[in-house]
Amino acid sequence: MADSVIRFSEPDVTDREVEAASRALLSGWITTGEECLALEAELSEFVGVEHVVAVSSCTAALEIAVAHLDLPRGSRIGVPTWTFVSTAMAAIHRGLVPVLLDVDPDTLNVSPESLAAALDADGGLDAVVAVHFAGVAVSESVHRLCADAGVPLIEDAAHALGTSDFRGRVGGVGTAGCCYSFYATKNLTSAEGGAIATDDAALADFARSFRLHGLSKDAWARYRPDAKTLGYDVVGDGLKANLPDVLAAVARVQLQRFEDMQARRREIVTGYRNLLADAPVRFVPGEADPHSADHLAVVILPEGTDREALQSELQSQGIGTSVHFRPLHTFEWFGAQGYGPGPTGVPVATAHTERALSLPLHPKLSDDDVSRVCESLCAAIGAADPA
Ligand SMILES: Cc1ncc(COP(=O)(O)O)c(C=O)c1O
Questions:
Q1: How many Cα atoms sit within 13 Å of 299 on the Cβ side?
Q2: Which among 138, 181, 189 is the best mutation to test ligand 1's pocket, defined by most ligand atoms within 8 Å of the CB?
Q3: Ligand 1 pocket, 9 CB below 6 A?
Q4: Whole-prediction pTM value?
Q5: With 60 as the cut, is the pLDDT of residue 111 above it?
Q6: Residue 157 clears pLDDT 50, i.e. is over it
Q7: Per-residue DSSP letters for 118-153?
Q8: How do beta strands 97-101 and 76-80 pair?
């Protein structure tokens, strides 16, 4: 019998999520309402932060955080080049200019040196978005540099629900908002979705209004059975980026199952690290980080590896892989807009551009799957069989 397919990512959905979605669908209220409010309360307790506002994506959460800064158009925002396009696109939508920062070779998180140079350069930076890449929190020095320069720091935590750092769980404490993703490949998924976490009540109020066209009251506030008033005002501009109750109901079950799913992720990542200990690949980060959310299992391939050929070979054996990320400075459009690297350039990101490979990682992988991925990877890069 042919080997079964090992997907790069697969949503871990059970009958419990299906029942929750059905219950919400049949409840008589399917858009943002009680389920969403409950999810927000549960997430804020889980993260340990005062306010969580659920939205339709991490991209929307980032756009809300940027909009709340209310910076003039043309303001400069530091963004690691090693990220998904939406980290920069959210700022670009608000008329800001991304300055692309280099990354640390071990974590591929924004490098404090690159950030410091951009803050000190002519024009400086007016804000920063830092990405907790693959579930590993950015270093405390990134927070300190921004604080010392008086520059707001937004956290792109698309990979970092459950990650901890010097503050406890990553969740917007002391920053200008922490943005999560519940996209299909994330460690908690509602298919699409996201949230912004903050200890700033003004940002939370802004987010509630901005996610719904800048309205002073959402539909739930106006039409629920005990609503006092049907009226609303427009208090600013905004998006249509609310999270419907059907998806919030799914996310609530995922949150209940989160610790179990994370424990399995940790086992899988540990398995990869053990089995590939003697392989000519380097893990990101080199040493396992006990505070990581283990969102991705990224390895750096030997220099000169034809990554595309290697991915095709693995695919032919039924093994899916991915690349996180193609750095922003390599996209033609960014260059054409004049969105380029800051003063240090991006030598580390450039050196890693063709070498990062994300291995399959989701809680439904078996130990046999992990062994098969390691064996196939070693064979494909011409290394000895794994330990
Ligand atoms: C680092 C990073 N930021 C932001 C996003 C955007 O998330 P969403 O799809 O929820 O908008 C992603 C999505 O993969 C991501 O990897």
A1: 26
A2: 181
A3: no
A4: 0.97
A5: yes
A6: yes
A7: HHHSTT--SEEEEE-GGGPPPPHHHHHHHHHHT--E
A8: parallel
Is residue 364 part of the annotated active site? The answer reads no
Side by side, which strands form the sheet with 356-359? 282-284, 297-300, 356-359
Task: Among 8, 58, 108, name the best residue to mutate to test ligand 1's pocket (greatest count of ligand atoms within 8 A of Cβ).
Answer: 58
**Residue 2: pLDDT band by 50, 70, 90 thresholds?**
low
Length reported for the chain? 387
User: What tokens appear for 91 in the block?
Assistant: 């700022």
Q: What's the rounded Cα separation, in Å, for the pair 199 and 347?
A: 36
Banded pLDDT at 62 (limits 50, 70, 90):
very high
Per-residue model confidence as pLDDT tens digits over 277-319: 999 999 999 999 999 999 999 999 999 999 999 999 999 999 9
Q: Is the CB of 325 under 6 A from ligand 1?
A: no
User: In this predicted structure, what is the pLDDT of residue 1?
Assistant: 43
Q: How is residue 31 written in tokens? A: 């858009």
Q: Does an H or E element contain 44, and which?
A: helix 34-47
Report residue 346 as tokens: 């991006």
pLDDT category of residue 217 using cuts at 50, 70 and 90 = confident
Reduced to 3 states, what is the DSSP secondary structure of residue 96? coil
- Domains annotated for the chain, with CATH where assigned, are 15-255 (3.40.640.10), 258-380 (3.90.1150.10)
CA 153/CA 144 separation, integer angstroms: 10
Residue 101: per-residue pLDDT:
98
Which amino acid is residue 7, in one-letter code? R
- CA 328 to ligand 1 center in whole angstroms: 14
Residue 223 has pLDDT above 60, yes or no: yes
Side chain identity, residue 94: R
First to last CA, the chain: 26
Q: Encoding tokens for residue 93?
A: 């939508």
Regarding the beta carbon of 131 and ligand 1, being less than 6 Å apart is answered yes
304: number of Cβ within 10 Å: 7
Rounded CA gap, 266 and 224, in Å? 42
